[in-house]
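Extended Data, panel c. Modelled sequence:
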Amino acid sequence: MKKVIIVQRIIPHYRIEFFELLYNKCIKEDINIKIVHSTVEIENNEVFKYIKPTFEMNIKSLLNEKLVLSFGLYKYLKNANPHLILTEDISNLPNGLLIFLFSKIYKIRYGILGLGRILSKKDSILKKILKFPIEIFRNGASFFISYSLTGAKYYQEKYSKKSISWNNSVCNSQIITKEKFLVKYERNEFNILFIGRIEKFKRLDLLIDSLVKLNKKNIKLYVIGDGPELENLKLKYKDLNFINWLGKITNKTEKEKYFNITHLCVMPGSGGLVIQELQSYGIPVIASYSDGTEVDLIKNVNPELFVENMSLNNLTYTIQKFYSLNIDEKADISMKSHTVTSKEYNLNNMTEITKKLIKEEII
């Protein structure tokens, strides 16, 4: 049986289902997948293996979470003797350099999974300082998997190695017909959703200001999420009655209750995986450049919902344009949003793409 080690800095809750699905598909192909990580909350089993970090540090300028170095990883890889390693990109750079060293000594190939280049952000000072070790790590890889076509193109052009898009997804698409969307848009109210952690760069204030500027009496805004800016924004907009602050919702059934009444989602700062989740329910999403997935899922599918330059006037115009469409036109946009997830961007396809690449790359 072939062995493949996937090294993750942390495992978000939304990735657990994917890794379990990948394990079950690969084991049938005589490939044993093991996910090695530093998330203490996840118990060891046939899929996951926790390795205690030797060193941890929160560095917001480079990562959204924490910097992790696990010397135990090297020992684990040596004992496991895998045929192939797949690791995160620079978000897991310290462990990535360990993997680079292991790869050179034991002639084991590795691939990198990452964003590539984030279109909405400039390189941080820390990333510029670490340019040399980043290039050593990336040049040592045999292949790249990106979250988006934009990222895959970046890796391909910069490193001239096999680079594919992962079709980054968090769920499979729902079974929905156009008739359901027609019924939803017939309602007199118009419900807009914002979902995600409430931080400055998410620009929720820009969305609220645009709705104030629109001044439509039948528009309601539902905000799902918490974060450091929540109380500031609630205080700033305390006199606006159209805002419903719902807090953080993790229960799927509870979230679906709001998804089912949402006509439009607006993500002024960043979208990421939530775009795929929303579009799997046929919810149109307005967004701008972020990690590349928004180009695949919005700009290439419903370009009228993509804001090239996110500003108050441009966002207000885009919301107004969708709001003014007739019921059939809105339903068509919902169907296109849904179709791209049902046919391309879903958990099953993401798993199949990963399994296919692993089979091709194992020697």
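DSSP finds 15 helices and 14 strands in the chain. This feature is highlighted in the accompanying rendering.
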